[in-house]
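Milestone M4 deliverable, item 7.
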Amino acid sequence: MVEVKTEIDQFLKIVEMKLKAQYKNLHQEQTLEIHNVLKKLLEKRKEISDYKNNLSQLKLIGTDCQVFHGSKQIEETIAKEAVVLNKMLEEPSMHEISFKMKKKNNLEEIVSTFYDVGIDRKKPTIYLKDITSQTACQTKKEAGPSGSSKSSTRTVFENEAFAEDSDVCSIVVLQDGLIAVSDFKYKRLVIFGDGGMTEGTVDTSGSPFGLTTIQQDKFAVSLPLSHEIIILDTETCEILWKIDTHAACWGLHFSDGTFITAFRAVEIAFLELHGDICRSFPMKQKNLVYVYKHNDRYFRTEFENNTIHCYNGRGHKVWQFFNEDALGPRNICTDAAGNLFVACRDSDCVIIISSDGKRYQKVVEIKRPKSIYFNERKSKLYACSDNGRSFISFILPQNIL
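Output delivered:
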């Protein structure tokens, strides 16, 4: 193999030397032609200058008749010179020059004389994963170019329901596999089937931000600009009751019979089902928007300084995460093990952080993701861009970290 490589290198060096020699010769020939053309043009320029001087002298010292005849002669001479110049422009030496290198078709034949090269193709490894009595085809988990893990099955959702300037803030999966998405700018919820088709829209009195399920037949929506949380019937989307929050509440999550919500630049508050605040953690951060609870851990994101924070049940910080792959963190959610998914809008990806905050990995890449939701039962991650134009769900492999 080494001898073959040496022979090929020697052959390529010879080819390179020949090409350089050909290029040098062509360059010298064209340079000479250009000099000759310039010389001719300079001679013509001198002749034209002489004609111009003669005409000026005639006008100064000649009679009208002399000027007339002299001018006619000069005009005829100039016309002849114009014809000569036009012919010069048609000469090949006056054309623009560009060097082109042409590869001969026998290169493959030359190389093949050294060695025969073949291609060995292998079939991809396929796993079948049983999910709630449904069998989904899942490709083997592989490391992507930036450390991301490839998901097995994905669904692309319709985007016609969203405008170019829509502001999608949250996702939640309702009963029967329906998915609700909040469009803050257009004051509505967009409802999708799990297959990606739009099922309808629900108008809200204010701009919806946070979404969370309460029970199988109820879900809640935060309306921060209206200072309220509305609880809706999952099947009919009718409002069952409202909670007056007295201030703008943003991110919303329901766990263990309690709402966890973010009051921007004020606190993370814990509300009972009908709105009474049972406790709170003071948080003065102006970007306190998205919050989430898993067991005795509470999470929030800080999108301006690109950090994710974890707290214990007493409100004491357990860990803080920062990485260049996690810029502009927005919505968050966890898997059953407490690993945290983060929508990193400014990094165009969703990452997962280990429950101890020490490890992370890219999960999927999507343009400007802002809203995510993880369905533990189906091991399915939903991710949506900030304007809703990219909305995709992925079935993820187990033990992704």
